[in-house]
Amino acid sequence: MKFTSDKSIDYLPTDELENLQVELLKKHLRYTLANSPFYKDKFSEDDIKGISKLSDLSKFIRTSKKDLADCNSDFLSIAPREVVEYVTTSGTTGKPLSIALSKNDLERLAYNEARSLEIADFTPDDTVQITTTLDKCFMAGMAYYLGLTKIGAAVLRAGQGTPEFHWEMIKQINPTALIAVPSFLQKLGANSRSIPHQITKALCIGEPLRYADFSDNQLTKNIANHWNMDLRSTYASTEMATAFTECQEKKGGHLLPELIILEILDENGNEVADGEIGEVTVTPLGIEAMPLVRFQTGDLARKHTQPCACGRNTPRLGPIEGRLSQMIKLKGTTIYPTQIEEVLHLHPCASPYLIEIDQDENGLDSVSIILPDSCTMEDSATLIISLQAKLRVKPTLKKSSISAIQKLLFRENSRKPKKIIDNRNA
Fold this sequence. Notes:
Largest sheet: 12 strands, mixed
CATH architecture of the largest domain: 3-Layer(aba) Sandwich
CATH superfamily of the largest domain: ANL, N-terminal domain
Shape: globular
Helix content: 25-40%
Mean pLDDT: 93
Number of helices: 11
Structural class: alpha/beta
């Protein structure tokens, strides 16, 4: 597949978009059937011939993260000598997985990110400072670099570092835009008395900027206290190697129809209605080294298919509202760590923080929030009231030093902060 940007695809009528995706899906499935040891007996050519609409994909097997972990080498669909890059997943919810890429996959990755950056209104006139990890086999940092250079922007590969380091780079190079995790963007703003006006936008990863109704969440409001910039959210994973990115309307991340097929499934594997929450399940198109079919991400979100006010007719993925593996049953109430984080972002004293999930002696879930020991008794009391109001249940508050919390945030040499400690399956 030749990866040359054709933004007109996004504006095709919905029936033409589906026809395009059906043909690309058949091509993807035929390649996968012929080359993937894992999928060789999971479906047949007759199954592929039977596809006439996207909903026919529901007849095919789903692929779990456990499948990818337990049978990792069986997913490799090219000769080992054709692998040009190995990346690993972040391991946020488990052991990092290895993903191989071919030369074509790298070109696809650059194309994906260039398309996403254009949707987010990044241009060749931008100078962009990347504040996310660029080493440790991290795909995202490499993808941003490839995509930015593909659109002709200037790139400052700053990578991870302290706020002081990044401010030094900003003063020296004068970037116009940032790539950042939202909570770091908040921290970066809080560490300066003078925010430069030339930084007008940021593409944010790893944490949602909005609630399910697309209104700004508290973290976004906190960032606005320091920065006057256009914030766009993008969602992707190493396994899917494809991004969903917000346009200027900020009503969900646009699907790239030539690169991925999206399903939102309920707990029984059935597709939910438009706008209802379910598990994000994807079939990335055009991948050579480790193609996937109906990969279950474990993330919970909603799909929106009505045309966007920006003019694009592509489906949009709403903010990630939780992870299936992190679902908590606390005193009869189902909650997710993201709901707790929404409350913590309202309270400046609760930074940094950790959320620890355990099981008590009766096998029931328990939740503790580890806060800096600088958080006063009055702060804690106020926070508990806010948590009870939002969650209807009361987690336990614990205290620790900031240095100890920071050490746990980046435990096991993680390249991004792991704010959830789930001991239930330990």
